[in-house]
Amino acid sequence: MRWSRVCLESVAYQLPLERVSSRELEERLAPVYDALRLAPGQLEALTGIRERRYWPPHTPMHEVATQAGERALQRAGIAASELGAVIYAGVTRDKLEPATACAVAEALGASPEAWVYDVSNACLGMLNAMVEIANRIELGQIQAGLVVAAESAREIVDETIARMNADPSLETLRLCVATLTGGSAAAGIVLADASISRTGRRILGGTALSAPEHHRLCTWGPEKGLLGQTPQVANTDASALLVQGVHLGVRTFERFLAEMGWHPDDVDRVICHQVGAGNRRSILKALGLPEEKDFSTFPNFGNTGTVALPMSLAMAEEQAFLSEGDRVALLGIGSGLSSIMLGLSW
Q: Catalytic residue among 7, 102, 123, 176, which?
């Protein structure tokens, strides 16, 4: 994929106020720790995550996604009425139908001519939606588009802790640890045609690959399917997911460099999907990228799903980690397995 007229105008985020430490989660898991004779501090030591944030119970996802979208539009200097597309890309949505994007578009005051729909692809949803809007801009169909997403980890973590306490076994622990890394946040991204861009930050192109034979390694949903009445269940074979994710990431990165005409040394900055310390070390080492080029947020915010990479990009901008002219690689790898990597000229 290559684009010649697509610019990243802004990226913004919205955070919950409630902070939940890994130690607090361990206190709730006392039956598991006692049964397995685990010492406190294991969760943070294993994941590198000190704390994460939670929305208040029953927070509508479209409300916090709208707040992030409003921030992104304000930073871009673009009115909601000028948007040619509004896409909601979070895993957690308000309802099965209609699209959560409809509530966001109404709240923002988007034009009735705007494309309004949801995109879902595990933790890659926002990157998928960016590609959707970039293609529409490149084809001349629209001049600007907004991607938003919100994620809430409170509910699935609560259910996972109850499940672990009811069955304090090593196997349950193995399948559930990854879920405990989840955090909550919202993000918004505005893309615009270069003819109206104020930033000139080009999204140059990218690559996507998938390995769907590994879709069983990480699952989340009702045990009996979307229409079932059973509680939400999340299972992750974290070790196998890491191995296969790195393999897919290496293949995607090789194609990404070829597509962009870059050498690994040409990449000035890297923003990855945020999972944990082990994943970060493994993927950067496999791609031959030094850790000082990477900007990470997982220690303080956990894995916020689709929001994690865009939020990290926004924070990298705020903290002056990115400089004008930097070649920036957005490296997304998500359950499915799928990978999307995008190249930007900052």
A: 123
Phi first, then psi: what are they for 237, rounded to 5°?
-85, 85
- pLDDT tens for the chain, 346 residues: list them: 999 999 999 999 999 999 999 999 999 999 999 999 999 999 999 999 999 999 999 999 999 999 999 999 999 999 999 999 999 999 999 999 999 999 999 999 999 999 999 999 999 999 999 999 999 999 999 999 999 999 999 999 999 999 999 999 999 999 999 999 999 999 999 999 999 999 999 999 999 999 999 999 898 888 766 666 567 888 888 899 999 999 999 999 999 999 999 999 999 999 999 999 999 999 999 999 999 999 999 999 999 999 999 999 999 999 999 999 999 999 999 999 999 999 999 9
Residue 106 a catalytic site member: no
Active site residue 97: yes
Domain 202-345 CATH superfamily? Thiolase/Chalcone synthase (3.40.47.10)
**Active-site position among 97, 213, 292, 324:** 97
Closest CA to 271 of 249, 241, 293: 293
For 16, 23, 112, the CA distances from 156, given in Å and listed in that order, are 16, 18, 35
Whether the pTM exceeds 0.70: the reply is yes
